[in-house]
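Journal club side-thread
Mid-discussion, someone asked how the predicted structure for our own chain would compare to the paper's figures. Pasting it here so we can look after the session.
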Amino acid sequence: MKYYCNPININYRYQFNADQRKNKISICREAADPSMISFKGKYFIFASMTLGVWVSDDLVHWENHKLSSELPLYDYAPDVRVMGEYVYFCASRRGENCDRYRTKDIINGPYEKIEGTFDYWDPNLFVDDDGRVYFYWGCSNETPIWGVELNPETMEPMGEKRELISGNPKKYGYERVGEDNSRLPKSEAEIEAAFQHFVKAQGTPIEQIPPQYVPLIKGMFTDKPYIEGAWMDKRQGKYYLQYAFAGTQYNTYGDGVYVSDSPLGPFVLAENNPYSYHPGGFMPGAGHGSTMEDLFGNIWHTATMRISVNHDFERRVGIWKAAYDEDGELCCNQRYGDWPIAVGDGKDDDIWANPEWMLLSYGKRVSASSYVEGKEPNLVCNENVQNWWQAKTNHTDEWLLMDLGKEVDVRGIQVNFADDEIMIPVPGEIRGTTQARYIEEAELKTQYLLEGSLDGEEFFVLEDKRESSSDLSHDFLVWEKGVKTRFVKISHMKVPYDQNPCISGLRVFGKCGGELPQQANYTIERISAIDMNVQILNPEISSTAEPVGYNILWGQDKDKLYHSYLTYEPVKRIGALVEGKSYFVRVDTFNQCGITEGKVQFVE
């Protein structure tokens, strides 16, 4: 077996975003909107704002290769599809015709340019079994996902575009914006009031605002969900049109799916929705992605995960196991979506198997050489990527020490370096027509020493990266046979731009002896057509059997609990229901020793 842990362990490039609203440069790492394909025996991921392509032989180890600057690498949502012996590439550019490119060699090129004839946003090309070519696009909280047939030679539309998918957040709870799908669209009066307040705060008279920008500004305040990120797949005569919902900056960013007997519809909402949804855990989000069959016939889904602290578009990329069930429903396993995932060398017959290794670091005692007020050491073990420990200096003698409480069998450690606010000059030219920025081209380095100890005094090396030439901000290290330790220490940290080191998660996974958590005793209340409350009511129990956290599973069949929300809170509102649907719910408990499955309840 091989193992990976989301987000993908790759170098994420820094973005210097020209934020005109704040009159400043916002700096953060970003990669998002991944298109994943299999081509000539290898796997490729094209993600926004990476200046290149990620390549893998096994879906576990990825390498970043820069691509030719002739490609529109500063345009969002790159789309790639195999058609014959070529790979076709395009990306988004509003208001300008978007060109396409094709190649027989992704890394080395050359790329043949095909002149574009119209503009689009969030594109997706689909080649049907009969060789006919279709195209899908759309990214707005006002307009739908569109579709049209293309001439396979010229890539020009054949016929008029069709409306295929529109948002309906009042009926489909998962489409609502806000953390935990918390907000419904505003009224026209509320939108106008918010617009007036914004304009006044900016100090710009309304009459000086170009008319074409007024709808865009008002769109910021509608709380209508963005319907975007189309991706089409076909299976046994059915067309599965996937789309992203809510908004990339929310923990509920995910992918839904509609089905049809025709590539241009009409489409109906699939029974299983949302298809990709990962609102809980360390790094949430699973929206605007793609679905791919690997060389062994396994299905995989890759999508965008969110941090969104330094900038809304501070994002990463994850991969999850997916499948078409016996009824043709497209489903994705994100129950423990940012824990280690095992990848075999053949067909996977059970994508729903529980994790092999448990989270051992949550809530553990942590100390450090120094820290900035409000960024204390304990934040590295609270399973929240949006806060972090920060050292007071960037000296290599700064350190962080975690006490796991007892000797355990460690199998994997994920070291998540964070970025505090960075104040440095832009290293290159700001460019781009949609969102002006500079993408860091230099190859940066992230270095550290990771040690273990049984007594907190004598330490041994777990991983020495003091001379590393890589820049892995979410580095995942594996000891498949296990290593015994109680303490984990990280030191000798050197990070890009000579920042004071910040760590949002020092996440330790493995095995330890002990008692499994008690089965959850819980109640469910359907509080609206699209919401339910789940409350865990465990009685007083011994500390050894106490749950560390809970995984709330639900679905429209007791054997199809495809949706999940991992939480450390005993009360949680689930806002991702579909109006008119009944659900089956199960609450599993977990601690560092294992998982105890709950009893299924039915909710009208």
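Post-session note: The helical segments are 188-202, 214-219.
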